[in-house]
Structure formats: C-alpha cells, structure tokens
Specification:
The complex is a heterodimer of chains A (about 220) and B (about 120). Chain A has helices at about 5-50, 55-85, 95-110, 130-145, 190-195, and strands at about 90-95, 115-120, 125-130, 155-160, 165-170, 200-205, 210-215. With about 220 residues, chain A is an alpha+beta fold. In chain A, helix 1 (about 5-50) crosses helix 3 and helix 4 (about 130-145) runs antiparallel to helix 5. Chain B has helices at about 10-20, 35-40, 60-70, 85-95, 105-120, and strands at about 1-5, 25-30, 45-50, 75-80, 100. The chains are: A alpha+beta (about 220), B alpha/beta (about 120).
Chain lengths: ~220, ~120
Amino acid sequence: MNRCDTGARTGLVFFGTISASISHELKNALAIINESAGLIEDFTLMAQKGLPLDPERLKTVAGRIQKQIQRADGIVKNMNRFAHSVDDPLKEIDLQDTLYFMSSLAHRLADRQSVTLEPAEAKGGVQILTDPFRLQNLLWHCIRFLLPFADSQKRIRMTIEEGAEEVRIQFSGAEGFVHGVPDTFPGEEEKILLDALGARLLTEKANERLVVALPKQLQP
Amino acid sequence: MRVLLVDDEEELVSTLAERLNMRGIEADWAARVEDAISLVGKTSYDIAVLDIKLPKMSGLQLKKKLEDLRPKMKFIFMTGHGSEADFRTGAAEAGEAFYLVKPVGIEILVEKMQEVMQSEGKLS
C-alpha cells in the first residue's frame, strides 16, 4: 500500500471505529429504554390483575427513560459533529473544545481500560487553523497508544501550552511509556497524519509526557 | 432457574433482573467483572448472560473465568456491537442462537434460557 492509500485508509478506519463505538453506545441506551418500557408494561399487567400500582416506581422508571433519551441525544449530537468534521480540510477551531470532544468520543475506549481522560481547562480558549478531522484522528491515535501505559491513578491528562507560532498538546499520566516507547509508535499512519498537520510528536522523557506540537496556522 | 446478568450498563441489568424475577426466574446482576466473579464463587447459577464488551475484560474472557469456578454453568451473550467478526467469535463460543443483539426482547431471552435448560435436561 502506498503512502496515499495508507493515509486514506487511516481516515476511513478512524471514521469506522468512531461510528461503531457510537452505534454501540446508542444500542445500550436503546436497550435500557426498551427494558424500562417493558417494566412499565409489566406494572400495568400486574395492575390489571389487581395488584396496586406504585406511582413512585412509575416515576423512577419514567425518569430513567428520560435520562437515556438525553444520553442518546448527546450521542447523536456528537455523531453529527464528528461527521461534519470532514467538511472543511482547513478550519479555525478551538483546540480546548476539540480535546473535550475527543475525550467524549474516546471515553468508551478509555472506560474499557478503566482510564479517565481529563482535558484541563485553558483560559480564554486556544484558536488554531488546522484540518479538524486529521487532528481528531491524530489525537485518537495518541490516546489509544497511551491508554495501556496509564499510571496507578488511571488518569490521562491533556493540557495546552500556547507559544507564538505553535501550540503544544501535552499528554501526561501515562508515565510508563517513556521507559519503553515501542518502535511502532509513531508508525506510518501517525507519521502521515503528522505530516499532513505540519505537526511534530515529541517524547519528553524528563517530564514523562507525550507532546503533539501543532502550528497555529496550518498552510493550505 | 437461577441466572446471573452481567453488563456494565447497570440500569439495563438491574431492570432486566427485576423483570425476570417477575416471571419466576431468580436473577441476580453485576455491573463489574469482579462482582460477577464474586457472585459466581458464592452461588451456583444455571446460566450467565454476559455482555460481550465489558470494562477490563471481554465477555468471552469472563466466561472462561466463570467456567473455571462453575464448569456446568451455561452462557448466553448479549452485545450492542453488530460486527461480523464479533458475531463469528461470539456465535462460535455460545452457538449462533445464544448470541443476542441488544435491545433484546425479554420473551426471546426467556425462550433462550428455557432452551438452554431443556438441553441440559433441567426443564421439560
């Protein structure tokens, strides 16, 4: 596979992975709604047989359904935002907002390894001109790489440091990786994304951090 | 019939357990693999209904751990994931008929549980 094909496939795989994760989460919300509606039906069947209906139980189950509908609505909003991230190959974005968004998209993956993703707040936000979809893809690769190295606190923190020409996204809380960075990271896929974004990937051994340095203005 | 439901979606397994109990099936539930292992260590369940994607380990890995504790226990899998690869792996492990995709109708789940019990000669 040539570099162009690898780059295209990387994007498609990322899109597919996120779509599958979203559909999985939606299925879970629907399954809870399904069981809750079934429970209300069970209550009414019991009432028809003469057993008294407990209004408090009904209220609890209705609240559960509403909560899951809100959850599903949030998932669909994320899905829509993610789908539209391919619209513009160059767009001004709020980097802090993107980190929150990526944490939200990756939370299921992180949960499965009992890790919490923590994007720190950046005062006033940090605006950069970049390729939103490729940046999300690169951040996903970094998160996925770091998860198995999460320290005893099981928290991976993401902070932004703003310079004159570039911004740095610092991943910390996965100290273990600096002592044995696999040769496979960054691999060809990450290198293609880094090139496309004009970005650099740095391993700060002293601070035990992985850093993505991005230009504030990506040249078209 | 005594069953254990395992899924990290607590509201799903707790509601399902309540509905099964209403149908005369003794159902316990666990939202964490540690709790599932602990419950199986203490209680002899006929069937465990496992989510395929659990935090820390897959449903298939959990099945092996639970089988070590209770070799006679039977399994049904539930999944929110509909990929071909997942289906093949789950179906190979549990049998195609016992690999259910969420949301699962309770009548279908009860039917599958009865089939398992019948195949074991525990239900006529």
